[in-house]
Write a structure and sequence with these properties.
Chain A: GO terms for molecular function: heme binding; iron ion binding; monooxygenase activity; oxidoreductase activity, acting on paired donors, with incorporation or reduction of molecular oxygen. Chain A: It holds the Pfam family p450. Chain A: Its cofactor is heme. Chain A: This is Cytochrome P450. The complex is a heterodimer of chains A (about 400) and B (about 70). With about 400 residues, chain A is α+β, with helices and mostly antiparallel strands. Chain A contains 14 helices and 15 strands. Chain A has helices spanning about 20-25, 55-60, 70-75, 90-100, 105-130, 135-155, 160-170, 175-200, 205-210, 220-250, 255-260, 265-275, 305-310, 345-360; strands spanning about 15, 35, 45-50, 65, 135, 210-215, 215, 280-285, 290, 295, 300-305, 365-370, 375, 385, 390. In chain A, helix 12 (about 265-275) crosses helix 14 (about 345-360). In chain A, about 45% of the residues are buried. Chain B has a single domain, classed as Alpha-Beta Plaits. Chain B has a three-stranded antiparallel sheet with strand order 2-1-3, with helices on one face. Chain B is α+β, with helices and mostly antiparallel strands and about 70 residues long. Classes of the chains: A alpha+beta (about 400), B alpha+beta (about 70). Chains A and B meet through loops of A and helix 1 of B.
């Protein structure tokens, strides 16, 4: 049951120019539906790899058998505390989730829309006024998405570069860089929590330090677990999605023209782009020995549910490798499923829709700049860099 | 048409609501309100689309009885 596919080491997963890592992972569907991948984490650990959407749904909906309790961030520091709610299992998970859900509900996101849109417009107008070309990640996707997120947390844009640097080193650096970045983020969050205890403001960290669960305030570890998770989770996932989306539109002029001439299609198209260019791999830990669809999973084994694999499952999606911006009945799991469904999904989705709307209405027909090549990569969070768009 | 709502499976994706906000109502957390949903004939197209958009399979389309009233089963 050992397979040779890995999201880290297989062809198409390394940093390569003009890569298509999503198409590369889709090839696993030609093989066995579940297999053991001996080198499928950043640290070279093995995981079971669940390829079918139906099986991933079963794993992710069963937290009793497949736990999220890994302390992955803390373990990089030699500590042991969970990111909250990501690394908690029910029932503790539900307590924190109920606390945080209203802050990220669809209705709350509707209320945030005007300020998000204003931010997008400012960014795009700055770009269109100054040039006929830009590096979309650095000039638009990252400052826009990280700016929205920092504003949400109650932080100003001034230190945006520093935060993005931490996130890059945490997600893509070597072991020493990861530890240093984790330490920096942790100290920052602890200091911010202490500051908001002394000087409350109308922001997320104030909400957290003042929050109560089960008639008590949150413990320092809990405040830290929530703060660090929110900080890390919001820093590069939406930007990566936006990068892949704009690269797709640059390379597919018909799709670009469709959304340009009929912008009301952007909402539905965003779901298809989320499906086709999903970026996150979820990992669970088996809490007991279990024979799962014929696979002898043992207690402690890692189980990988990669969104970009389930979302290219031909049983779930007709012609999964055809990107059809008018696709209906699109039950993709770009935001995972089960109790850990991405808390920020409604915010993320809205950011992408707004970014595409404002970009397409202000930037004329664009393409990948001649002589340049975007760099793509696989791993825990797929990404794209050096995406130079040109509309001269 | 009738939609069986399996509340315990709802994880707040809100995809049903985004397709048909007048048919699928959410609570303050963004999760579906309990209770099965009777769908008027004129709303069937949108209701089907909403039910088929659920990544958790929390919404089941039931055409067997068009006369059952909303019984609050969850």
């Amino acid at each position: 049951m050992v397979g040779d596919f890995s999201l880290f080491t297989s062809p198409g997963m390394q940093r390569i120019p003009n890569g298509d890592p999503h198409e590369a992972v889709a090839r696993v569907h030609a093989g066995p539906p579940i297999f053991y991948s001996p080198d499928n984490t950043r640290d070279g650990r093995g995981t079971w790899l669940i390829t079918r959407a139906k099986d991933q749904r079963q794993v992710l909906q069963d937290p009793e058998t497949f736990s999220s309790n890994r302390s992955i961030f803390a373990s990089a520091l030699g500590d042991d505390w969970p990111l909250i709610p990501l690394e908690l299992d029910p029932p503790a998970h539900g307590v924190f989730r109920s606390l945080l859900n209203p802050l990220f509900s669809p209705k709350r996101v509707i209320a945030l829309e005007p300020s998000i849109r204003a931010r997008a417009i400012t960014q795009v107008e700055k770009i269109s006024a100054s040039s006929n070309s830009c590096e979309v990640m650095k000039d638009f996707a990252i400052p826009f998405t990280v700016g929205v997120f920092l504003h949400f947390l109650g932080l100003s844009d001034e230190r945006l570069d520093m935060f993005v640097g931490w996130a890059n080193r945490l997600l893509h650096g070597d072991k020493a860089q990861r530890s240093a970045a984790a330490r920096a983020i942790l100290e920052f969050i602890d200091e911010l929590a202490a500051l908001r205890r002394k000087e409350p403001a109308d922001d997320f960290m104030t909400f957290i330090v003042e929050a109560e669960i089960d008639n008590r305030s949150l413990a320092d570890k809990e405040v830290r677990g929530i703060g660090v998770l929110l900080f890390v989770a919001g820093l590069d996932t939406v930007a990566a999605a936006l990068g892949f989306d704009l690269a797709h539109l640059a390379r597919n002029p018909k799709d670009q023209e469709l959304l340009r001439s009929e912008p009301e299609r952007i909402v539905l198209a965003t779901e298809e782009l989320l499906r086709a260019y999903s970026t996150v791999q979820m990992i669970r830990v088996a809490t007991k020995d279990v024979d799962f669809e014929g696979a002898p999973i043992r207690k402690g084994d890692y189980v990988s549910c990669a969104t970009m694999i389930a979302n290219r499952d031909p049983v779930e999606f007709e012609n999964p490798n055809t990107i059809d911006l008018a696709r209906e009945d699109n039950r993709h799991t770009a935001f995972a499923c089960g109790p850990h469904r991405c808390l920020g999904s409604h915010l993320a989705r809205r950011e992408i829709i707004i970014a595409l709307e404002e970009w397409l209405s202000r930037i004329p027909h664009f393409r990948i700049k001649e002589g340049t090549a975007p760099i793509t990569y696989g791993g825990h969070v797929f990404g794209i860099e050096n995406l130079v768009l040109d509309w001269s | 048409m009738h939609i069986i709502v399996r509340n315990a499976k709802c994880q707040g994706h809100a995809r049903c609501w985004s397709q048909a906000p007048d048919i699928f109502k959410l609570d303050e957390d963004g999760y579906i309100l309990p209770g099965n949903i009777n769908v008027a004939e004129r709303d069937e197209f949108l209701a089907l689309r909403g039910a088929r958009s659920c990544p958790e399979r929390a919404l089941e389309i039931d055409r067997s009885s068009d006369h059952i009233t909303n019984d609050g089963v969850s």
